[in-house]
Design brief:
Blueprint: E1 2-8, H1 14-31, H2 55-61, E2 67-73, H3 84-99, E3 105-110, E4 117-123
Antiparallel strand pairs: 1-2, 2-4, 3-4
Length: 150
């Protein structure tokens, strides 16, 4: 299952930007809080290439982005997976392929519920364009191009 929660950013003026920036910071703190790993430790941010990414640097890179996309990825067999990071990285590579662009993203795995899941944050700025929106047709059953691989 993939849930998508697009977040609007800077387009409504300085007061909205300030509120939005605080919300992004709060969301990152929520993802990294204590007690969310299998061992009850603090959540650790990772990316496509880093096992321990700098979440604050990611947030700073996206401060002026018009959008931010937040996914919750909850594979049915997540409790049996040895490595949710590999699954998430494969999923994000497939999204990049389907969308035809690289994505700047970070993720945190949570095991603090009966259903292990991964929170993914994607910047709203594609490498190919100044600002992006993800297609509205993205669903857990298929990608934007109709592939059934997400």
């Amino acid at each position: 299952m993939v849930k998508l929660a697009p977040q609007r950013g800077q387009s409504r003026g300085s007061k909205f930007r300030s509120t939005s920036a605080k919300a992004v910071d709060a969301h990152l703190r929520y993802l990294e809080r204590d007690g969310v790993t299998k061992d009850g430790e603090k959540g650790r941010v990772y990316s496509a290439i880093e096992d321990e990414a700098d979440g604050k640097a990611f947030v700073e890179r996206g401060r002026d982005d018009r959008h931010q996309f937040r996914f919750i990825v909850a594979p049915e067999d997540a409790a049996d997976m040895a490595d949710m990071r590999s699954f998430t990285r494969d999923l994000m590579r497939q999204m990049e392929s389907d969308l035809g662009t690289k994505l700047d993203w970070v993720a945190v795995d949570h095991h603090n519920t009966g259903h292990p899941h991964t929170h993914v944050i994607v910047r709203g700025c594609l490498r190919m364009a100044a600002s992006s929106t993800l297609p509205a047709t993205i669903s857990p059953m298929g990608s934007a191009t109709g592939h059934k691989s997400w």
